[in-house]
Amino acid sequence: MHEQFRVLADTNVLVAAVTSNEGVSARLLVAARLGRYRLIVSPMLLHELETVLARSKFRRYLSNDDRPTGSS
Q: What 3-state DSSP class applies to 31?
């Protein structure tokens, strides 16, 4: 068995993947979902991502269930 690549994505890359189904950022997220590599996230990165996605300009990209609740 081979070791899987581990990737730490910047918050900007993750936001770009959420806001567009096209482009490198979206393809990177799809590859992670398919198990091609392991996406590494930290609590700090998740907090920053939630903070950014909670902004009103990102509401149209997320369903109500996917929107950050501010509970983290």
A: helix
